[in-house]
Structure formats: C-alpha cells, structure tokens
Amino acid sequence: MKIESGKQYENQDFSGIDLSGEELHSARFTGCSFSGSALTDLLTRNCVFTRCRFSLARLGGSEHITSAFVNCRFDEASLFSARFDRCKCTGSNFENANVAGIEIREGNFSYASLLRCDLRGCGLQNVNLSYADLRDAILDRALLGGADLSHALVQGASFRGADLRGAKLAGCDLKLVRFQKTKLDLEQAVLLAEAHGAEVVL
Predict the structure, then answer these.
(1) How far is residue 192 from each of residues 7, 144, 170, 176, measured CA to CA in Å?
(2) Which pLDDT score is estimated for 196?
(3) For the chain, which residues score pLDDT lower than 50?
(4) Separation in Å, CA 75 to CA 46, 56, 165
(5) Alpha helices (H) along the chain
(6) What predicted TM-score, i.e. pTM, was given to this entire model?
C-alpha cells in the first residue's frame, strides 16, 4: 500500500515497507505496524503516530519535525543520528533501541521508557522527561539545561560529566544515580545532599 501525505491510516500493516528518503506531511496513523521497515532518512512533518510499532525498523538519519509518536514502540529499532524537533513522544518505548547520536530538540518525552538507553553526549535541553523511565540509562556528558526530569525513574542512571544546571529534579530518587564531575546548580546540590541523608542549612 502506498502511503500519502495528509491521509489517515488505521490498523494497517506496513511491516517491511521502504520509505527511505521519503517525505510525509500531516499524515495520521493509529495502531499501524512499521516493524522491520526501512525508514532511513525519512522526513515527517506534523504527522501523528498513535500506538504504532517500529520494532526493528531502521530510522537512521530520519528527521521528525513537530510530529507526534504517542504510546509507540521502538524496541530494537535503529535511531542512529535521528532527529526529533519539538516532537511529542509521550508514553513511547525506546528500550533496547540504538539511539547513538540521536538529537532531541525540546519536545515532550514524558512517561517515555528510555530504560538502559545510551544517550551519552545527547542534547536534551528543555525536553520534558517528567515521569520518564531512565533507569540504567547512560547520560554521560549529556546537556540537560532546562529539562524537566520531575518524578523520572533514574535509579542506576549515569550522569558523569553531564550538565544538569537548570533541570528540574523534584521527585527523583538520587541515591543510586552515578554522578562524577556533573555540573549541578545549588538547588540540585541540596537535593542530592538530602538524598544521602544530609541536613542542609543555608
């Protein structure tokens, strides 16, 4: 089946489709499968994907501008050097996906699962990651200024060399987070000290 911009698709199986280098604008997909598809260098703009599956799909170099991926699954997909610009990825699952070199510009990734994802060096400024699952994720040298990590699951996550200044950490359990040469602002330093039982007197 040919996919066209501006159309709506529901419960369609596009597994194995080749959309490499294609452009999609204002298309809507609900409950569709793109498992194992070739989506390299795909450009989406203002598209909406709801409860869609991208398992094992190849999305390397793809670019998504103000698109939405709500409650989608990207398990074991390749997102190498993919770019998400002001996208909504609420509730989506990126477990075991290759996210090396991914670029996320602002956007909403609240309630998303990034469990064990390697996000080292990633720019995540002003991204909404509230209630996201970041357990055992690698965020070394990541830039998180202005990001909202409120109530995110961060146990076992590594923030070595990351810049967290200005990020919201309220409700995070910081006791089992790995910090080393991590840049923190005063409010965050207080939260970290209190997480380890200190009584901070300012």
Answers:
(1) 49, 16, 11, 11
(2) 59
(3) none
(4) 23, 7, 31
(5) 186-195
(6) 0.92
